[in-house]
Design brief:
With about 130 residues, the chain is of the alpha/beta class. The protein has 2 domains: about 10-55; about 60-130, Orthogonal Bundle (Glutamyl-tRNA Synthetase, domain 2). It has helices spanning about 10-20, 35-45, 75-85, 85-95, 110, and strands at about 25-30, 50-55, 60, 125. α1 crosses α2 (about 35-45).
Length: about 130
């Protein structure tokens, strides 16, 4: 499977790459949900054990536009400049993702035992302008 320019197709490349790395769990945005059936098909054709897939909501702005690095949204350097330490940002994002009852500073390592996938919202997550 190659594109017309000779480059291997994304679906094939990502399937082989994940299989050879021994990936057992894939967590990605819901915008890639439609890619999963093709990848599962390729896993079967190639004789690889497929990973489990989890698709989560996207981070969007107040207008519903998907946030992305490509568009300069939520750049780490800007967040560091505005907030200094990572803990307030981690805590606020954990709150938006349904993992905390209120936004409060939190280290990433302290978030791990609190994580519950069932608490992740089903709809896209609107990031308030204070973080943008």
């Amino acid at each position: 499977m190659r594109r017309s320019d000779g480059v291997f197709a994304y679906q094939l490349a990502v399937t082989i790459d994940d299989a050879l790395m021994g990936i057992t769990q894939v967590v990605r945005g819901c915008d890639l949900l439609s890619s999963t059936p093709m990848q599962l098909y390729l896993y079967g054709l190639l004789g690889f054990e497929p990973p489990s897939f989890c698709h989560i909501p996207l981070l969007v702005d107040a207008t519903g536009r998907r946030l992305s690095k490509r568009d300069g949204d939520l750049e780490i350097a800007a967040l560091r400049k505005a907030y200094g330490r990572p803990e307030p940002i981690i805590g606020f994002l954990a709150y938006l993702a349904g993992q905390l009852a209120k936004p409060e500073p939190l280290r990433a390592v302290d978030l791990l035992p609190l994580f519950d996938a069932s608490k992740i919202p089903q709809q896209n997550i609107v990031v308030p302008n204070i973080l943008l």
